[in-house]
Amino acid sequence: MDETDRDDLVFKALADPTRRALLDELFALDGQTVQALCDRHPEMTRFGVMKHLAVLESANLVVSMKEGRSKRHFLNPIPIQQLSDRWIGKYARPFSRAMTDLQRRLERAPQEGSA
User: What share of the chain is helix, strand, coil (3-state, %, to 5)?
Assistant: First the structure.
């Protein structure tokens, strides 16, 4: 799988508000079971939570580990950071640089009305 395909999976996973809510839950308390996530989202069925977790796992945003008879789910923030580095940072830098340059120019400009 190439970088573009991985990015597409992550963007698809993050596009859904329910999946983002599940990621927020794992950020707040990592290593939760499906039952714990269901308890925090009573509006969702167990099948719904499992389906969303499968999408998050396929995007490598969640890693699951068997622990006895249960399975714990852990947040993997690396794909989000990679997206940020690849897409957000690259586009934000020119604007940030322009704002920094403007700030420097304004700070060096003579103050109006000052003696």
Answer: 65, 10, 25
